[in-house]
Amino acid sequence: MALTAVRLLDDEALERSSVVANNAMNRERGLDGVNSYARDLGLHPLDRLRPRLAEHGAAAWLDLCCGQGRALVEAAGQAPDGLEIVGVDLVGHFDQRAYALNGGLTLVTASIAQWQPDRAFDLITCVHGLHYVGDKLGVLARALTWLSPGGTFAAHLDLASIRLADGAPAARLVRRLLREAGVAYDARRRIVTRTGPTVLDLPLEYAGADDQAGPNYTGQPAVDSYYRPLRTGTRPDPVPVPRRSVVVDDQGVRVGHGTWTFEADWDELSSAALSRIVFTPADVDHLELDIDVTWGEFTTVSSDADGFTEAVAEFARRWGRPAPDLTTLDPADGHIVVWQRPDE
Ligand SMILES: C[S@@+](CC[C@H](N)C(=O)[O-])C[C@H]1O[C@@H](n2cnc3c(N)ncnc32)[C@H](O)[C@@H]1O
Question: What is the span of the domain harbouring residue 108?
């Protein structure tokens, strides 16, 4: 898809779009239960905040794109004294119970594209909010600077909705850039997480948003975000990291990285897939092997890891297929499965 085929919107036009200001979206998640923050984030906000409260007597939670603020109202009703909660949403239709609370909860009507807090937070969440934001990576970068030391960040982010200015998908590139910047991405839950504040300086410049991208994985129409590759020439030399190693044998797979190891037996492995990633502005050009396990986690091994070629060959041999030619792999080939559980 060429950029000329897509009409990119600025923030003002986007925030007036029926895709963003629409009543059909789920703005009513509670704190826990079926339709809830605890369930969709895979973490209970109060469980994250209680140790802070116990230690410091105070803690703060910021929820971006808070919708009606139901989860926040429920948390404020249950939380011990000392918990400060702030919710921000473009639409000021908040849960009426918020107005009966006696302090502790502030609900702000503003766009998170511009809003700026005046304090740090121990927990920052954004539950299915970035799907409707133009500069998703810019909001992410700003919000990561608002964390207190040791604070938790968790936000839904659909990497499939991030594209380069020529329309090319940028999911794998962004996933890699985030990982290199110390920001974790859970591809199954589509959640970006981080502990402690950081400056996220990605070589990408926001170009605009497409509100006609159609439904995303939630089934609701969402917004695609476009970025131009940016070469500043000021990126510092990378700090040498311990080399990874990967071994595939009768037991399963073992990945080592310094003192960190990832181990999975054959009955725990789900699939292994190979891809080539090229992004010239960030000097990225290598092969990656994504190894998925049955309980939903994955690990990625780059082609500079010791044993990479042998591991790919061993996966393919055990799957009964020829190993792909690593020298001719093209980024456009996407994910090439080299092994898959027989029942998948
Ligand atoms: C799917 S709802 C989720 C609401 C809430 N987090 C929940 O789970 O119940 C997405 C929310 O993002 C808000 N939103 C969209 N763009 C925004 C922006 N630029 N700034 C602040 N809120 C925004 C919408 O108004 C909507 O309430």
Answer: 3-229
Q: Which of 17-21, 24-28, 107-111, 217-221 has the highest mean pLDDT?
A: 107-111
| Residue 74, domain member (yes or no) | yes
Residue 318, SS3 per DSSP: helix
Last residue of a domain, one of 206, 229, 252: 229
Q: Cα(127) to centroid of ligand 1, in Å?
A: 8
Per the structure, the count of domains in the chain is: 2
From 27, 35, 36, 114, mutation site for ligand 1 pocket: most ligand atoms within 8 A of C-beta: 27
The size of the chain, in residues, is 344
Residue 130 DSSP SS3: helix
- % of the chain beyond a pLDDT of 90: 72
Q: What is the pLDDT of residue 340?
A: 95
CB-defined site of ligand 1, < 6 Å: 15, 20, 25-29, 65-67, 88-91, 111-113, 127-129, 132-133
The helix-helix angle for 45-56 and 70-78 (nearest 10°) equals 40
Same domain, 97 and 207: yes
CA of 62 to the centre of ligand 1 (A): 13
Query: What was the pLDDT predicted at 1?
Result: 40
Q: What confidence score (pLDDT) does residue 124 get?
A: 98
Identify whether the C-beta of residue 144 lies closer than 8 Å to the C-beta of residue 153.
yes
Ligand 1 geometric centre to CA of 134 (Å)? 12
Instruction: Enter the tokens of residue 314.
Output: 């061993």
Place of tokens 């040498």: 240
